[in-house]
Amino acid sequence: MEAIQVPQENGINSGPSDLSWDVNSGAETEAFRIAMRRVVGGVTVITTRHDGQSWGMTVSAFTPVCMEPPTLLICVNNQTITASDISREGRFAVNLLSQAQLYLSQLCSRTGEDKYIDEHVVPRDDLPERVVMPVLRDSLVTFDCKATDILSVGSHLVVISAIEAILAPRYLPPLLYGEGRYLHGVAIGEATSRRERSA
Hints:
By secondary structure, this protein is of the alpha+beta class. It contains 4 helices and 10 strands, in the order αβββββαβαββββα. It has a single domain (40-198), classed as Pnp Oxidase, Chain A.
């Protein structure tokens, strides 16, 4: 019997004869880790206060929960200083990084090293009174948060938080991360226009 040729759409053949899997696994930790590397998203640094100083930690698990009331969720390893700070104080800030802050993402992701960041935060006098936690300079947006629920799930704390204040300065290009490397985005329409101009 001859194989049926399925027409390609946008250069992708969706026929069953072309199906192959880079990952084909049950619920195994390493397979999950490899699969999650394919998620491309913005880079996030959680800021807290530790021993009276600003402290930061890069995290990958951050998502909005609902708009009314404004609520978000983060996940942090329960063995980290950041998890201890949040559990103790119930306060933290979520900073979405711009491309100008790649060095901060690297600094705040180093395992086992101090992540004091006082020299990278906006001075207290330049912030509105309602903002409590450290705000990183040049962030796309900072959410000042108060934990409402903290759940222990496996190796991590899942922290659901009410947003107490939002700060967003002038727009800067976002810092993205996926497949184990930093990325920058181009709007699809812009990419098409560039290709057409260069053709």
